[in-house]
Amino acid sequence: MEQTFIIIKPEAVRRGLVGEILRRFEAKGLTIARLELRQITEATAREHYAHHADKPFFPGLLRAITAGPSVLGVLEGPDCIRHVRNLAGATNPLEAQPGTIRGDFANELPYTIVHASDSPETAQAEIQRFFG
Ligand code: CDP
Ligand code: MG
Q1: Handedness of CA 110, 112, 113, 118 (dihedral sign)
Q2: Which of 7, 102, 116, 125 could form a disulfide with 89 if both were Cys (CB 3.0 to 4.6 A apart)?
Q3: Its family (predicted)?
Q4: 8 Å CB contact between 113 and 9
Q5: 77-95 pLDDT, tens per residue?
Q6: Probe target for ligand 1 pocket from 61, 95, 101, 121, with the most ligand atoms within 8 Å of CB
């Protein structure tokens, strides 16, 4: 069965949105295979977002993802990688459609509420990185 990796980011944990976000994934028919509240270290954040290291928003992204505890999870189900990206919505909160997680809860970058793997290759690498 296909698996994907999610992070419910610190701003969402702080705002009490964990239950609401997990409810949406479960309502879509996805199964929670792993779930853990964990503070992401700066070293792990740098590795996870290494492909963005040269972007101007990288320092702010590192600060945001390490600002407090996150909820890390592995979700499972048919086509769950694409389903979870659809449920998350567009990266830019101004472009995320109402009804998506970001469309409903994200206000400004870099605070995008959730991370979700974007391909089978990244899902496998991210599950290994955080739950290996
Ligand atoms: O999270 P997603 O895969 O949708 O987007 P990304 O392009 O891989 O960017 C990763 C994260 O960097 C986003 O979720 C934002 O937190 C942050 N970001 C930002 O602060 N400003 C941007 N212009 C693009 C991304
Ligand atoms: Mg991405």
Answers
A1: negative
A2: 102
A3: Belongs to the NDK family.
A4: yes
A5: 999 999 999 999 999 999 9
A6: 61
Tally the domains of the chain. 1
| CATH classification of the domain holding 85 | 3.30.70.141
The amino acid sitting at 8 is I
Q: What residue numbers bound the domain in which 38 lies?
A: 2-131
**3-class SS of residue 41:** coil
Confirm if 41 and 65 have CB atoms less than 8 A apart: no
User: Do 67 and 11 touch, CB atoms closer than 8 A?
Assistant: yes
Q: Enter the pTM of the model.
A: 0.98
